[in-house]
Structure prediction request, 525 residues.
Amino acid sequence: MLKVQSLNVSYGDLQILWDVSFEVKEGEIVVLLGGNGAGKSTSLKTISSLVKPMSGTVEFLGVKLNEVPSHKVIDYGLAHVPEGRRLFPDMSVEENLILGSLTSKARAKRKETLEWLYEMFPRLKERQKQPAGTLSGGEQQMAAIARGLMSLPKLVMFDEPSLGLAPIMVSEIFKIVEKVNQQGATVLLVEQNVHHTLAMCDRAYVLENGRIVLSGTGEEFLNNDHIKEAYLGI
Amino acid sequence: MEVFLQTLVAGVLKGGLYALIGIGMTLIMGVMGIINLAHGQFMMVAMYVTYTLFHFLGIDPYFTLLISMPSLFVLGILIQKYLLNPLMKVDSILPENQVLMTVGIAMVLTEIARFIFSSNYLSVKTSYSSSAFYVGGISFSVALTIAFGIALLLTFGLFWFLIKTDLGRSIRAVSQDGEAAELMGVDSEKIKMITMGIGAALVAAAGTLLLPIYYLFPDIGGPFTRKAFVITILGGLGSTVGAIFGGVTLGLAESFGATYIGMDFEDMVGLVIFLLVLLFIPGGFRRLTKV
Ligand SMILES: Nc1ncnc2c1ncn2[C@@H]1O[C@H](COP(=O)(O)OP(=O)(O)O)[C@@H](O)[C@H]1O
Ligand SMILES: [Mg+2]
Prediction:
């Protein structure tokens, strides 16, 4: 479904990604693991065409996304829930959600999708008129996820959705990610949180200093002591 | 007491027009992150459009709104597309360079106006230019009252557009987080062009509405760019509701300054208020209104 091939990406003179390749198949949950500064967010931004690669391709359902302007990416059914939520802080929760449904297809179903998401996130319904910037961290993450789902995506990319949340909230967010997957969307999840993610994913990749150094199924990762020690620190 | 009320009325009416000037500048500030130092010059261009239509074709100044606003809308779009957006694509160019570009645009517009119309003072005299009506002993300039009414309508329309339409929401989204907006499918370059167009059209309306009670010469843009700047800062840099407060405050300050201190001090009082607000409510009225 999503095929990332030999990406080399740099900011100015500083190369960040080196020959990065990975793949996400329809229906999967794939996790991209890696420490701070490994290049996880840069990978997602390149897929979303916010960052243009020096070389390599991003292919999604047969379309070369690296040749598409970033605002067109969502039209192809790919939603990106960015690191740090990136809600529109002065707008209400509902307005934030509405902004997730600007494509013509999503716009036509805006009302139904809103109702569905309010059912899934009752907390957001309670806070629909409140400025997004005033929500708690966990609620903001829910709003960011819901905003991403408003476009009725085929594939959702989550960039560290558990970042900075209390432990209870972290589990809840991962449950939501699984639920999104069960309801039919393919998931590419970027995380540092190894414990939760390996158990729930189909496959995982480890990114280190901008290079993919490991890949395998979640189970393989969890059962390999060497891998656990060397790369995952558990 | 009557003098006081009279001054208050004059200040509020003028403030309505100032709000229109300030809202345009504020929208541009919010979306582009730059101060548009050609704002008053956009207004000057609109005033010459109105003058030309009135003088040569005899069209009533208020009807020329239908031409001056779209003309400046298009001018704003073209300037953003061909002069400002390209600067943003070059990494090494700082946003400050866009501000410098607006200064250049301001100069070019002024000199073009001087070339075509010379430096003479021009005016548009209509039957209502100097007429007034009275309510309880207070005089209301007809032209200024009409201008205030139209300014109110335009402001109302703008807020409706910003709050209720997808395009308006997209404009606000870009001003709050351009990259996130891009992820939502918003073409931020297009939004910037449209915003510059709207800002220019709003200040065009102010210029056209002001012309029947004002005068016109090529350098009139500068003082109004300054006023727009003051209003934007008063309003809290990027807050449209704040800009309304900023506009009315400046209108009142000038009006009271002219009445109680002296005509020559009109501008100075505005600037003193500006400094006081900077000192005592840094962040402007946005701090108070939160919108
Ligand atoms: N806009 C940018 N300009 C320059 N360097 C950047 C930029 N964004 C990220 N980097 C650098 O790229 C590297 C990878 O960053 P990132 O992809 O955000 O890592 P991760 O998401 O894995 O923490 C880091 O060293 C970071 O400092
Ligand atoms: Mg990151």
About this structure: The first helix of chain A runs from residue 40 to 47.
